[in-house]
Amino acid sequence: MSFDPWELLARIRPDVVNDLRRWQGVVGRQLSPRERVLVRVALAAQSRSVPLLESALDEAAAYEIEPDALLDAVLCAGPIAGMASVLDAVEVIHRRHPELVPDDTSEETPLVVFSPSPPEIPPTDDLPAPPAVRSLELLVEEVPETGAKVIELSGRRVAVFRAEERFYAVDDVCPHQDRPLADGQVEDGHLVCPWHGWRFDLGTGQCDLSPGEDLVIHRAEVRGDRLLVSLADSAEAE
Ligand code: FES
Q1: Residues 143, 150: Cα–Cα separation, whole Å
Q2: CATH 2.102.10.10 domain span(s) along the chain
Q3: Which of 92, 101, 108, 182 would bridge with 148, disulfide CB 3.0–4.6 Å?
Q4: Residue ranges for the chain with pLDDT beneath 50
């Protein structure tokens, strides 16, 4: 099995790694799903963890992100991660996208050493809407012991919790005042909202305090070292 530096850090410095991941989740909420996946690719390249990069590339594939954009993401990591990390990541990306090597190598591409003006970045409004993705595979280790891993599926924020080696996926929106639930506590099969203490049954979504104002529960299925999170059939894309 290949050495995974993230796994090592997660084992010997779990608090720091969990805080870092939660911080990334919080700041990531401001980004579009496509931007978030590309940031994840860049961070995985920076970490030099092949399993993390593979997982980020799975997400990118779900969003049909083109290989050129993946290369740009890992190049963005270059100034901090160093070229060795970038080259490792390019190798992993190339294994998935062998078409990145042009068929005709007879024409030499001129080497550009200086660009007088920065490239234009298209306004985000021009980007096509991301495809609806109703399920996503995570590494089990990505779900922290405390707090939640927040992901986005079909425009819905989904908070994934772990408690006593069971996993739960719920809408990251409290039915009481639409506040995030990611900082909630799991107790006895219930999720307690951190804002005003409403409790939701993690099997049915029922609220103890206000019957009828129930939480949407999604599916979380462990497959070896991966966790498949899928939107509930009743959940509409947003
Ligand atoms: S916002 Fe969750 S209980 Fe009030």
Answers
A1: 9
A2: 135-230
A3: 182
A4: 112, 114
